[in-house]
Amino acid sequence: MPSLKELRGRIGSVKQTQKITSAMKMVAASKLKRAQEQAEASRPFAERMSAMLSNLGAGVQGMPGAPPLLAGREGAKSHLLIVATADRGLAGGFNATIVRGARRRIAELQAEGREVKLICVGRKGRDLLRREYGGLIAEFLPVMAPGQKRTEFTDAKVIADKVIDLYNSGGVDEVSVVFNTFKSAVVQILTFKQLIPVELPEKAEASDEAGGSVYDFEPDEERILTELLPRNVGVQVYKALVENAASEQGARMAAMDNATRNAGDMIKRLSLVYNRQRQAQITKELIEIISGAEAI
Amino acid sequence: MADKLTFELVAPERLLASVEADMVVLPGEDGDFGVLAEHAPVVSLLRPGVISIYEGDRVDRRVFVAGGFAEVNPKGLIVLAEAAQPLDEMSAEKARQDLKDAEEDLADAKSPGDLERERLERLVAVARAKVEAVEAA
Question: How do the domains of chain A map onto residue ranges?
Fold first, then answer.
């Protein structure tokens, strides 16, 4: 049985921990709000872009001379996986989920005989993958530079440019990204998204929207596609980053809420033991005094 | 008066404008062109330049875009801009400074790869268009 003094010390330390976790929860909640707004604001562009791509791409795909970013390279040998995680931990299963998904994917690709390369966005992903797949990591970037408050489109652009350089130089034949899609503060969905070759969304409604009419292209279809496709990579990376940022804050908020509640339970339990022991001590002392008095 | 044109200007970070306009003039890759309601479906590349939104027969708003895409479909006009900024929020001094910086960057790049050079040249082109836009306003 721990002594009264030890118990007091433990209650104190759990209380401190609870203060920290509840503060972190508040911070995550306010950051979540901002990140969520950003994720939602970025959706229209990504959606329109996909719609435009599917309108354009469906006609060109399968034709000889289709841009390789769209049609893919034949006999693709190497695969670049962009692992987007967070820079910090203490966000529940957020980073672990992504890394687990990435590991599974790497194993699958290697089993197919592909050469796998990794770009880690976020410190945690690199830390967790370094031991096992250190040799595969081609590039590492933190999600945010020190002091940076939000993910900008230019950050995504930097990554996208690197990816496209790698692709054009023949370093990789396929590119995909793994991240968490933000569903709600407590639900995040692990998502794999193929970037190169481009995955075209279902075209079912797209043709209705255009009223069955055929587009004119200026200057011409091919020029537009060669501009649009690299741009699309940037947009998809950006989308992955902002969804991830919102998911991270959501996961952290949920995790810290849990931790705060657990700390509360622990304090309750410890206080009970403490009070019981204090009473036992008082009783013991009284008995000593009384039996001492009786002995005289 | 014909129907109005639904015009949406979207940047990667947010939806910048969603308005009903009488006419929108776009800086197309092959030259400026105006879009009225019920324009034929077209997809066009945009060069860095100014989009003018007409209300009646006068210009209601001008927005600078650093290139992008325009799509006209029967529902309206959608512009996917890379970066956009209302013209009246831009200052000529800053634009000139940006152009100077961009040109210096290009000159400083010692032995850049083709892609890097292309990127810098593009930045210079955007900055130059910006200066022209501001000076014309």
Answer: 4-20+257-295, 25-252
Do B41 and A213 make contact, defined as CB atoms within 8 angstroms? yes
Q: Do A224 and B15 touch (CB under 8 A)?
A: no
Taking 70 as the pLDDT cut, the residues of chain A under it are: 59-66, 201-213
What is the C-alpha separation between A167 and A79, in angstroms, rounded?
10
Three-point CA angle A130, A109, A160, nearest 5°: 65
Encoded tokens for A230? 């690299």
Scanning every residue of chain B, which has its alpha carbon at the shortest distance from the alpha carbon of A226? Answer: B45
The residue-averaged pLDDT of B98-102 equals 85
Given this structure, which CATH class describes domain A4-20+257-295? mainly alpha
Choose the closest CB to B10 out of A45, A156, A216: A45
Q: Which residue of B has its CA nearest to A150?
A: B13
Give the bridge partners for B32, in sequence order.
B27
CB pairs under 8 A between A and B: 93
Q: Looking at the whole model, is its pTM more than 0.80? A: yes
Cβ of B30 within 8 Å of Cβ of A41? The answer is no
Fold of A25-252: Pyruvate Kinase; Chain: A, domain 1 (3.40.1380)
In tens, the pLDDT along B1-49 reads 467 889 999 888 878 888 899 999 999 888 899 998 888 888 899 988 8
Residue of A nearest to B44 (CA): A218
Q: Tell whether A40 is within 8 A of chain B (Cβ).
A: no
Torsion, CA A124, CA A126, CA A130, CA A135, rounded to 10: 170
3-state helix, strand, coil in chain A (%, to 5): 65, 15, 25
Phi-psi region at A113: left, alpha or beta (left = phi > 0; alpha = psi -120 to 50): left
Separation between Cα atoms, residue A223 and residue A229, nearest integer Å: 10
* CA atoms within 13 A of residue A160's CA, in its CB half-sphere: 24
Structure tokens at A287: 């008995």
Burial of A73 (0-12, 13-18, 19+ CB in 10 A): middle
Determine the residue among B26, B33, B71 to mutate to test chain A binding: the one whose Cβ has the most chain A Cβ atoms within 10 Å.
B71
Instruction: Say if residues B84 and B62 touch (Cβ distance below 8 Å).
Output: no
Alpha helices in chain B (DSSP H): 92-108, 114-136
Alpha-carbon span A224 to B115, nearest angstrom:
18
Q: Cα(A80)–Cα(A78) distance, rounded to whole angstroms?
A: 7
